[in-house]
Amino acid sequence: MGELIFIGLGLFDEKDISVNGLEAARECDVLFAEFYTAKLTGTTVGKIENLIGKNITVLDREKMEKQDIIIETASNKKVGVLVAGDPMAATTHLALRLRAKENRIKTRIIHGTSIIASAPALSGLHIYKFGKTASIPYPRENYFPTSPYEILKENLKNELHTLILLDIDEKEEKYMRANEALKLLLEMEKERKEKVVSNKTLVCVLGSVGSKIPKLRAGYLKDLSKEDFGEGLHCLIIPGKLHFMEAEALVELAGAPRGIIEEI
Amino acid sequence: MGELIFIGLGLFDEKDISVNGLEAARECDVLFAEFYTAKLTGTTVGKIENLIGKNITVLDREKMEKQDIIIETASNKKVGVLVAGDPMAATTHLALRLRAKENRIKTRIIHGTSIIASAPALSGLHIYKFGKTASIPYPRENYFPTSPYEILKENLKNELHTLILLDIDEKEEKYMRANEALKLLLEMEKERKEKVVSNKTLVCVLGSVGSKIPKLRAGYLKDLSKEDFGEGLHCLIIPGKLHFMEAEALVELAGAPRGIIEEI
């Protein structure tokens, strides 16, 4: 009997996997991985293979979404699918799980650390005060969605913080930088004109979350959009209403101007 | 020079810790843990000590919040603080981190799998469609907050899903059961009368998330409030507007009545 195990790799390097995940991966007959929905910037496929002690077949978007190779292999083998972050955050993986179920293949999920919880935790902002998460895609010809602006507007109205994830273009090896994203937010403001974002908006930039030395900077959009936050994946948090201890955390841990404490 | 490392233990048993977390814990001079903000129901302190190969001093709420013993030890030793879930989800840990910073003690965070991301992932509901998270506390004399009702109402209005965490009373070793929580939601409805919750509300119950055999059941409140979801920590998800694949997931993976697909 086959089995399909979704194994989360976590956020940054090969050792972000849980001990349960590592043990399960070592027991699999075949390991697949995909890195287009999320990516570990602190390691390589070779290092992950070394830690697990098995070869990994990396699938591109097309093969992953077609699913056939995974379903066929899992029909009579124990198959692990390695995914950065939590292994069930993207619709692709849910679709694969449903198809496995349809084919009477047993499935199991081994969770991984996820940016959804880790970025708020690192920022010092209270995780229970986050609203809906937003994502900023790379603009393409005739495609410049302002849905992140809409989400941000709604969250701010409800005094909630907003986590904003940034696009990954795995094929081109492009990972949206925080300052690109901040400029896109200002462009959305120019288009929508609802006074949601400005140069004076307090923002928090996170880079390489999960690494030994993650980057965490808070300040006004105007200032941070000039900064370079280096390698690794970036994301943004736009704080809503701040509690005193949250403001203190942004000042002490993220270098925000002390004035934000007085503004509360 | 001392150091304070916050290490996430993840959700269920001692092997939910990441390889990075395990290695860091093994390098610490002193290990503290607290289990009143969150709890691993699939293991014991002894098993965690065995895996790490070191003794752990478990702190009660009072000692943890006073912080002194941790700060004093970390002033000249490498100290690990083990916390279930992500180690920075509760204000207590942020307060400790700020005090360490004040005392010029270096801090580091090793993230853990968190119910905030894992419960949505397991449910099959799209994580980007969750609004603010709610928590239901045990009612006490003259204390029956309806804030979870308020959060749910707001999320439903915005067509968002709501994750609801349930109270833990570590001293009394009481963990709120899903059916208790469902009854409390109905009581809130009786008090507020804003037609947010009823016996016909579609709910999703999760138990022992992170274990090999997590519990996942979806159905109408009336039916699920009669079921016993066994040992382990429980939480709830009240779905907002469902996408077709989400409804399919609730039917196929969580046993929801097939009618919910037609209702979309």
> In the CATH hierarchy, what is the class of the largest domain in chain A?
Alpha Beta
Number of domains of chain A: 2
Q: Rg of chain A, please?
A: 20 Å
Helical content class of chain A: 25-40%
Task: State the secondary-structure class of chain A.
Answer: alpha/beta
Q: Which residue ranges of chain A are poorly predicted, with pLDDT under 50 across at least 5 consecutive positions?
A: none
Determine the strand fraction of chain A and express it as a percent band: 15-25%
Oligomerization state: homodimer
Shape of chain A: elongated
Examine the secondary-structure arrangement and name the CATH architecture of the largest domain in chain A. 2-Layer Sandwich
Number-wise, the strands of chain A total 12
Tell me which protein chains meet in the greatest interface and how many residues each side has. Answer: A-B, 58 and 58 residues
Stated plainly, the CATH topology of the largest domain in chain A is called: Methyltransferase, Cobalt-precorrin-4 Transmethylase, Domain 2
Q: End-to-end distance of chain A, in Å?
A: 60 Å
CATH superfamily of the largest domain in chain A: Tetrapyrrole methylase, C-terminal domain
Q: Figure out the total of helices of chain A.
A: 11
Helix and strand sequence of chain A:
EHEHEHHEHEHEHEEEHEEHEHH
Strand order of the main beta sheet of chain A, please? Answer: 3-2-4-1-5
In this structure, how is the largest beta sheet of chain A organized?
Answer: 5 strands, parallel
